[in-house]
Recover the amino acids of this structure.
């Protein structure tokens, strides 16, 4: 439902379940109550006769038929977007330091006087004694605690700013039920008329980017994709803004354990028995050690309390920021995107318009496919020609190498055969000459008688 702020007359909107709640106006920051029921805002519009008519080309006409021009039109130059969730680290450190000094100053003012038994301490004196016993460690933990709480407080202020922006009527129904090529400019111009302090919010920035992309490309899917990507960016930014707080949440109990270890070391070093026969002296030493051990664990206790004090507000704030981001996503998906009309359908349900749009889309896709197919065919033909040229060149090279190798092999074989024939001829001649000589010797032996006499050897092993 929609209503107006009674102070600044800004048009606002809210869900019906929020009726009766007290909120702050995003424009003037005054408190107001969301009404239980509201009258239609169309009753506040001037009569149609005072609005004038429009010519065929869309130019607004006055009652006498002359063109009417608006002298005031917001300049669409965008705006610088600030970080919607990360707190300034130095500002939070300054706030944490001031709170730490004030806390320690007030607490240590209740420090018990020396010699006062611990059983007589009141609550403030007990706390002052705990901090004073481990002042370096507890003081550093106190600074970490207030620094983390300052970061959460600054983030909460940013979240309140984001929640106030949700009350804005960013898509007035007065400008049209559908957001198409003719009306998208009016919706974008309306965003530029919002107060500067409220323009810089995640919801307004996301809607502005989506509408400006839709105005340029006339594509609902592109605008939806852009807003979905922006949602992922915002979610990652919110998750990363808690890095320093989680670091403090880890460091605070660790520093408490460090203080405990130091306290145990001092307590054990003070343990000494100079006179083992004096029971009272031994009891006094043990009592001092036990008191030291009890004080040592106070540092861990302080660290754990501080850690719990940071953990619960941090998780509550994380859930609140996630809920705020979910509300923005729901608005974009359930209200903005269904109102975008890129010409793919007509509000009256004209089937011919749908068929024309579908035919244009199919024709464009087919044309693009044929262009890609022709380019692919040209590349295939070019690759086939290159392959043929390479195969022909390779075949020529193989033929040349084969002829060269065959000639070389033939020459080598011819030389080897010649050498073999020559060697065989020489061997045959030598054999023929030997046969002739052998025949001569045999002939001479045939005409002579050969007597063989056995000669007796003389030596060491002879019989004589």
């Amino acid at each position: 439902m929609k209503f107006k702020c009674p102070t600044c007359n800004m048009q606002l909107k809210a869900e019906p379940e929020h009726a009766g709640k007290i909120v702050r106006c995003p424009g003037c920051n005054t408190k107001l109550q969301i009404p239980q029921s509201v009258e239609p805002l169309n009753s506040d519009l001037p009569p149609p006769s005072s609005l004038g008519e429009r010519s065929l080309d869309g130019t607004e006409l006055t009652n006498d038929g002359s063109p009417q021009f608006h002298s005031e039109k917001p300049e669409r130059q965008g705006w610088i977007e600030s970080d919607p969730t990360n707190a300034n680290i130095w500002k939070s450190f300054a706030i944490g330091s001031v709170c730490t000094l004030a806390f320690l100053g007030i607490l240590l003012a209740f420090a018990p006087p020396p010699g006062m038994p611990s059983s007589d301490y009141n609550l403030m004196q007990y706390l002052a004694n705990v901090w004073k016993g481990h002042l370096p460690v507890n003081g550093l933990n106190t600074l970490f605690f207030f620094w983390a709480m300052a970061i959460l407080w600054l983030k909460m202020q940013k979240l309140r700013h984001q929640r106030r922006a949700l009350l804005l009527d960013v898509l007035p129904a007065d400008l049209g039920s559908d957001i198409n090529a003719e009306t998208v400019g009016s919706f974008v111009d309306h965003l530029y008329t919002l107060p500067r302090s409220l323009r810089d919010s995640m919801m307004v920035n996301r809607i502005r980017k989506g509408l400006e992309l839709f105005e340029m490309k006339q594509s609902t899917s592109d605008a939806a994709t852009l807003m979905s990507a922006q949602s992922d960016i915002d979610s990652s930014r919110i998750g990363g803004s808690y890095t320093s707080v989680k670091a403090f949440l880890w460091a605070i109990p660790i520093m408490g354990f460090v203080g405990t270890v130091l306290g145990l070391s001092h307590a054990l070093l003070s343990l000494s028995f100079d006179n083992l026969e004096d029971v009272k002296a031994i009891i006094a030493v043990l009592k001092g050690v036990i008191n030291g051990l009890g004080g040592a664990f106070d540092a861990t206790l302080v660290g754990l309390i501080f850690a719990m004090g940071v953990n619960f507000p941090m998780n509550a704030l994380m859930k609140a920021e996630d809920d705020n981001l979910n509300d923005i996503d729901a608005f974009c998906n359930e209200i903005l995107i269904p109102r975008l009309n890129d010409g793919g359908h007509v509000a009256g349900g004209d089937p011919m318009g749908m068929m024309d749009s579908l035919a244009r889309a199919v024709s464009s896709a087919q044309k693009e496919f044929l262009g890609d197919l022709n380019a692919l065919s040209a590349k295939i033909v070019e690759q086939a020609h290159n392959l043929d040229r390479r195969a022909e060149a390779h075949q020529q090279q193989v033929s040349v190498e084969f002829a060269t190798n065959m000639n070389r092999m033939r020459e080598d074989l011819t030389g080897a055969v010649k050498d073999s024939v020559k060697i065989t001829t020489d061997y045959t001649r030598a054999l023929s000459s030997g046969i002739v000589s052998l025949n001569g010797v045999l002939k001479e032996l045939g005409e002579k008688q050969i007597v063989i006499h056995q000669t007796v050897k003389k030596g060491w092993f002879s019989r004589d």
The CA atoms of residues 40 and 235 lie 36 Å apart. The chain is about 65% helix and 5% strand.
